[in-house]
């Protein structure tokens, strides 16, 4: 949305909150009427959970379902818990199986079984087939409702299948072609079907298929889908039988969530999974406090280093002036390296096996940056204070940048190697570690150069 549209939605949100507080629901409903679906989604993201539930009840049934499907799973979860049981049961039943699983992953454990019991046997079975896969597997994000065809089928037969399955299928634009054992032998696009005659055989129209195993990592498969530009990717089980399909919109949704999580964890917070303005204060506090405690404990390393070299600082108090500069430069250098490597890992450009190549490159990058900053620090500190002080600052900047870039480059690779999210190992931990290491380097160089 444009800034102007966002300002308009903000004004509407303020108006609706005031109308709800006064109990004037008729006027509130009138204020919602001109808004389209994306605007209503943005509006709900700006309201409290209680006000959002009231607004949702004011929407017409058809608009309400469209809005609900466009919300993030976290916001859906909040809304579900604020609505009445009858409304929840209806909404849950009208969702696609894969969307239900997204929502279930956000709901309290006590709520999900009750919702599943309210489904028809067919919908419960479809949802259970997706829920059976582990949390990070692509099988948990696929749609099990797929229209298939066979090599020996004709275009006319296939089009009749498509029309019959329009109400349930996740996509009709790419159809998997399977053999008698439900093994994928190719795919055929709706464009090719529409361009062919009814008597043409599917075997003459189908092309080779890219497939993914249901147990593969969801982010990896989603990125592969977008990189290949596929509208849909068939998902198969361990016996190569078709079990579902991943559509391009679901792939984009997976990547958006993963990137949001990485960005949050690199900043030292847990991802919110819902709009900031609609997130309760206690949840914001909970998302940050654990990381702050961890980093506070880690910062005691820096305090310990300063205590160890207290005598050195007492003999040359000017050294204390440069501590913020040095640890700040080291932390920033390490964070830059970690961010670059984490992104390359996510894009599949490197793997943990490339640790030597990455370390070699980051050492050279860090050394180059250190020499540039070190020369600048040497000149400025030498002119303002003393050339011996300038030499200490120059050498320290060179060493700190080299060490920080190296650590920042290999930590995400180490995290991936031990099956931990690389973002968790990135900025906060690197900053804490490099602060302590940088101070040790600084005081050791100062003692050697200044003879103290």
Describe this structure in words.
The protein is mostly helical. The chain has three domains: 3-132, MgtE N-terminal fold; 155-266, CBS-domain; 281-450, Orthogonal Bundle (Tetracycline Repressor, domain 2), CATH 1.10.357. Helix content is 64%, strand content 5%. It is built from 20 helices and five strands. The protein has a three-stranded mixed sheet. Strands 1-2 form a two-stranded antiparallel sheet. A hairpin with a 5-residue loop joins β1 and β2. α3 packs across α5 (61-70), α8 crosses α10 (121-131) and α19 packs antiparallel against α20. It is globular and about 90 Å long.
Concise account of the structure shown:
The protein is built from 20 helices and 5 strands. The chain is mainly alpha-helical and 452 residues long.
Give a topology summary.
Layout: H1 3-22, H2 25-32, H3 37-44, H4 49-58, H5 61-70, H6 73-82, H7 85-94, H8 97-104, H9 112-117, H10 121-131, H11 155-164, E1 174-178, E2 184-189, H12 190-195, E3 212-213, H13 218-228, E4 232-236, E5 242-247, H14 248-266, H15 281-308, H16 310-315, H17 323-346, H18 355-384, H19 387-417, H20 427-450
Parallel strand pairs: 3-4
Antiparallel strand pairs: 1-2, 4-5
